[in-house]
User: What shape does this take?
Amino acid sequence: MTGETQTVSPKAAGAKQYIRPVPANWWLKRKTYFLFMVRELTCLAVGGYAVLLLVMAGCARDEQAFHAFFQWLESPFSIALHLISLPMVVYHSITWFNLTPKAMVVWRGEERVSPVLIAGSNYVAWLIVSFLIAWFFLGAA
Assistant: This one.
């Protein structure tokens, strides 16, 4: 062999690969790990609410089913689910908006757009859409 190097993988050489043991409560060790796991858990509330909206859309074709669905929405169980899911969805949205500047780097010419401006524009859009929805449903009544 002239100038060539030969590499042998650990598996081919018969060596065992080291897998570091990770305790089940690893996410409780640091606050940042804990908040990350809480954020991941909140996706269940977001997905659950998406399913709820799909069921409502499916019931919209039948007046009797739609009325029964709205009666269920007034039940104490449904209200409790909404009270639990609202803070989870809000937390998920806030952490997502704060993550946006890290996932989406925007350049204006040679200059990087400020992360505060990117996240702030998401919050402004959120407030405008929330205001419009509230105005449409509460103002029309």
User: Anything to note?
Assistant: The mean pLDDT is 89. Strands lie at 107-108, 111-112.
